[in-house]
Each structure stands twice: as structure tokens, then as C-alpha cells.
Amino acid sequence: MIDFDNQTDLNVDLEALETIAQSLTPRDFELIVVNNETIKEINFEYREKNEATDVLSFPFDGDFAHLPLGTIIISEDFVSEKAKEYKHSIEDEFKLLFIHGLLHLLGYDHEVDNGEHRQKEEELIKKFNLPNSLIVRNS
Length: 139
What we know:
Layout: E1 2-6, H1 14-22, E2 29-34, H2 36-47, E3 55-59, E4 70-75, H3 76-85, H4 90-105, H5 116-127, H6 133-138
Helix pairs in contact: 1-4, 3-4, 4-5
């Protein structure tokens, strides 16, 4: 189950996100939607990067099945900008960023792995009939 906190006016299809999440894990996690100003503050506080970003993932340490996986934070501003830039819907862009963030919670890390994160993203993009823009921009 997704513990959802939408701090914006963005309309989010929580049912579709639950379907995606359940295809990957039975564990609970938190999903927060914020604006660029808020995600920039969080990015600086926890990663010392003084810039807004599209999605942040904070996995809980340890493998305790009874605890939530962690937290995903998505920037509504980035969702809108990238949807327009790549000419697809806001809903699809949100799902792409959600998949990216959830895979981080599950231990995938494109910055250090041998392509496993990107491969799993491609698999999920095809499975849920999403646009290939995430693959294109991350290649």
C-alpha cells in the first residue's frame, strides 16, 4: 500500500500506481508529491545538491519485511515540464518517475549497477504501455 501525501494540485492516479507497485513488491512505502522549491530543499539537506530534481528515493536501511520500503518524493513541476518536453501525458510522466523511484527503493541503482536498473525500467515501461522517453533520456 502507498501512503500518499500530495502537497500540490496535481491529479495522481493512485490506483494505477498501486498496480505498478504490486507488480514489484508487497511492501508499503510513502509517496510524496511536492513542488520544485520543496524538492530542492530536500535535495540539498540530504544530498548536498542545491538544485531541484525530478524524483528522490530514500530507502529504509535493513531488510525488515514488516517495515515500509522507504519514501519516494516526486516534483510536480518536473512532471509537467518533462511531459510537455517529451510530448506525452502528465499521467504517463508521473508513472515513469514513480517506476524510477520505486526501483531505487528496491535496491536498483543506475549510478553503480551494470544496467540492471535501466533494464528493469524498460521491462516495466513495456509492461504498462508507457512512453519510451525515460529510456531515451537516460541512455
